[in-house]
Amino acid sequence: MRTRWWNNIRWRLALGSIIAALLSAGLLALTAMLVIGYYYNVDQQSRLSALAQEKAQSVSIVYEHNRALVEDNSDTSFGNRLKKIANNPSVFLMTSIKEVYSVSSRRNEPDPEHLYLFLNAQGKLVYPLAFPRGNAFGVIQSLLSVSDTARMSTDQTTLKNAIASAVKGHGQGGVFGRQTPVDSSLPFFVEPITVSNHTTRTSQIVGVVIVTPFSNAVPGFVSTVGIAVLIATPIIAFLVAMLAMFYAQTITRPLAKLTAASKVIASGDYDAQVSVDGPGELGELAHTFNEMAIQLKKDVDELHRQEAWRRELIMNITHDLATPLTAIAGLGEALVDGINQSHEDYEATGRIIVRETLRLRRLVQDLHVMAKVEAGALQPKKKNVRLAALVDETFAVLVTEFERHQVEPINTIPYSFPTIQADPDMLTRILSNLCNNSLHYTPAGGTITITASQHANLAIIAVTDSGSGIPEEALPRIFERFYRADNARQSKTGGSGLGLSIVQAIVSVHGGKVWAENIPGAGARVSFTMPLSSIEDQPTIVTNRLSQSQVYPGA
């Protein structure tokens, strides 16, 4: 299945990083501009407050000086002019303001950056009545020109409230206009003009002064910061995207290897391995994947092996069942047809039928035991068993087979040999299978000898024949189920192929080991171990120490 680029982890991580970088840079820029704008407005308000207080104080001093000239009946032309306007507070205030500006002009101290508006105590504009520069004058003049107080805008209300507060003697600042991180709002400050009344010794507010910048232009450093942020944001986003793609490769490259290996395994090749170096989760994932592939290969091989065993089982059972059934059917037909009517013929036919029937029974028993082994249901019922007596019983059961093959059984185990912990029936089955196996390969006149020796708390039991031995290439495989060294599978020498597998399974559930070897000049020997009974259960202990190589020569 082809993955589209927008579903690719590398591109999704890169795009996600770009979006995150843009959002982060934008949020950072917004925060910076808000902070800069806030502190810039605070600084402007502080400066406007200082300028308003200075201008109000200057006007107040001149105002008091002019009023002193009027009270002293100064006979100068300026004093006479002041007497004429003394009864008009607004004109008297305006004259004082003009005198302040006249002095500032002579001292070259004009303020070209700020607009000063003077109102009388009634809140009416007295100076200047017109101004040619900037937009601040027009803005404030329009705000002051309110005919319907019920429909005032927010800015008009803000300015009116500040003027009303200043008329009462409290200076107040404010902002009107649009406010943004790089705002175009117009700050202002209203300061009362207070003069002293020497007669009543009280203070009198004769007017207020409004100070505001001519222009709402953003300061240069604020604009520079904004431009820098706008330029830096895409650069940061690009660098973050490159870095994200680089690191994404450290994730996608191992994942691509895992995907390729998974496809190889899906195609049926279970030898696929992933080479991912480095610590961390991806390295652990690769290691786990390799272990999974190894285990999967083992499981598949085991399934193939089981399938091969199944096919071999069907083939072997078909062959092993066909031979005795054919013999029994043929002999039965002969009996029915009346052929060979003599007593000796009947006896011979009966013996053959019994032998073939016993062969079928052994095959069924072998299959039953192997089924229990596969199901894990082979549970021994251990007892104290005396080996010498059990071997004699086994020989007694097989005496007919020994006579038919003309082979002599020999039991060399003394009656005083220590008892062992084993299931008697299963142990009998082991000895019976080993004897039957040896009978197939021992020539007439030969012997089958059973011996036992003690090593520590184990009994080592061996069955030795005088045959030709086991081919060297067959020794490692003789305990495999259905394996027989006789490839021709002749009825004379071939068994079911399960006998030694059953021996190995029974020995294993008893906690022992089994092995096979060739003895020079003697034939083949199959040995196995069984645990001895505890000391208190032993009537007599016979010690026969062996070396490790003698105990497990085939191990």
From TrEMBL:
Residues 249-301 form the HAMP domain. Keywords: ATP-binding, Kinase, Membrane, Nucleotide-binding, Phosphoprotein, Transferase, Transmembrane, Transmembrane helix, Two-component regulatory system. The chain crosses the membrane at residues 12-40, 221-248. It comes from Dictyobacter formicarum. This is histidine kinase. Residues 316-534 form the Histidine kinase domain. Its EC number is 2.7.13.3. The keyword Transmembrane applies. It catalyses: ATP + protein L-histidine = ADP + protein N-phospho-L-histidine.
